[in-house]
Amino acid sequence: MKDKLIFLDTETTGNDVLKDRLCQLCYKISDKYNTGYFKPPLPMSVKAMSITHITNKFLADKPPFKGSEMYKEVEALLSKGIMVAHNARFDKAMLESEGIAVPQSICTFRVARYLDSDNQIPEYNLQFLRYFLDLDIDAGVHDAEEDVKVLSGVFERLLAKMIKETGNENSAIAKMIEVSSHPSIFKLFNFGKYKDKKIGEVAKTDRGYLEWMLSRKMEEGGTDEDWIYTLEHYLNN
Question: Quick one: CA dihedral 209, 123, 22, 98, positive or negative?
Answer without folding.
Answer: negative
